[in-house]
Amino acid sequence: MLRFVEIIDDTISVEEKAKLEVQLEEAQAKVVEYVEGVEAAKANNAKEEALLLEEKVKLEKWYADKVQELLNTVIVTAAKKSSEDVTIGKTVTFIEIGEDDEEEYTIVGSAEADPLEGKISNDSPIAKGLLGKKVGDKVKIATPGGDMEVEIIKIQ
After folding, report:
1. Residue 2 three-state SS
2. Domain limits, CATH 3.10.50.30, in the chain
3. Residue 5 has what pLDDT?
4. pLDDT tens string 107-140
5. Cα–Cα distances in Å, from 8 out to 5, 87, 88, 122, 136?
6. What is the pTM of this model?
7. Euclidean distance between CA atoms 29 and 133, whole angstroms
8. Residue 79 — pLDDT band, cuts 50, 70, 90?
9. Which of 36, 76, 86, 137 falls between 20 and 30 A from 9, CA-CA?
């Protein structure tokens, strides 16, 4: 799944950037550690251990490259993006007009959707109707069971 990942929001906070930088440093430290392990294993004629550590070196280098690539392509903002608009990854609370019960859903990608857990796919009719809307917006949503009109009361 990661092979086909697409960044939807290319902004991160200063705190998120710092976390990525720590992850990069940790991966680079592991590469050094594993390279030293490969050399020691070869010196001790432990071929299988050396091969295993060489694979770990490749994996950690790949991971470090991906984190570095991410750091090079994102835009760092002073603060986290506000939760003003409904986007993928946000939890939306709304009331169906004429009803009293609040409904709350987290909008996720189709692979993560689990309606019983309150996670709906961004391809679902409800999510499509909510995406891009703000708190206070009244939205008419066409669903297989008929049209429904909702008012968004909270986005987080």
Report:
1. helix
2. 91-155
3. 67
4. 998 888 998 999 999 999 999 999 999 999 999 9
5. 9, 9, 8, 12, 24
6. 0.50
7. 44
8. low
9. 137
The two structure tokens encoding residue 15: 């705190």
**Residue 33 to residue 27: CA distance in whole angstroms:** 10
Residues in the chain: 156
Reduce the DSSP state of residue 21 to 3 states and report it.
helix
- List alpha helices for the chain, DSSP H: 14-43, 47-73, 125-130
d(Cα 57, Cα 39) in Å, to the nearest integer? Answer: 12
d(CA 99, CA 53): 60
Tokens of 122: 């961004």
Which one is predicted more confidently, 93 or 4?
93
User: Class of the 91-155 domain?
Assistant: alpha beta
The CATH number of domain 2-77, selected from 1.10.287, 2.60.120, 3.30.70, 1.20.120? 1.10.287
